[in-house]
Amino acid sequence: MIFGEALLCHYTSQYYCSDCHCNEERIIPARVIFNWDFSKYTVSTASAHFIDSISDEAVINMKEANPQIYNYVPELSEIKDLRLQLFYLKDFINTCREDDIR
Fold first, then answer.
1. Does residue 80 contact residue 70 with C-beta atoms inside 8 Å?
2. How far is CA 46 from the centre of its chain?
3. CA–CA separation, 65 vs 36, rounded Å?
4. Which of 15, 46, 60, 95 is 20 to 30 Å apart from 23, CA to CA?
5. CA distance 37 to 43
6. Strand 40-43 to strand 14-16: parallel, antiparallel, or no bridges (unpaired)?
7. Residue 57 DSSP class
């Protein structure tokens, strides 16, 4: 073990040694959900790997995690409305025959 300055991981809020924390910076998902904060913060190596592994996945349901965010972020509210329109459009397309389209 290396003795030295303990480094704070902003993802886990725990301190790590310099072997486990290399000052990698990532966007913290919870800060996006609750504060709409896309700033990068230093995280431990393990947290960086975890955040990287979920970065392309839709693992957080914003409607359940923070339903009030739609009131504060107009762009997100617009995206929610567009997704709902696409949902209903899918039903229309699936029920419409090809001959009816022409």
1. yes
2. 18
3. 13
4. 60
5. 16
6. unpaired
7. S
> DSSP code of 97?
-
Burial of 11 (0-12, 13-18, 19+ CB in 10 A): buried
pLDDT for res 12: 96
User: pLDDT digit string (tens) for 65-87?
Assistant: 888 888 888 898 898 899 899 88
Low-confidence spans in the chain with pLDDT less than 50: none
CA–CA dist 51, 47 (Å, integer): 6
The dihedral through the CA atoms of 50, 37, 66, 76 has a sign that is: negative
Task: Using the CB atoms, write b or e for 49-63: b if 16+ within 10 Å.
Answer: eebeeeeeeeeeebe
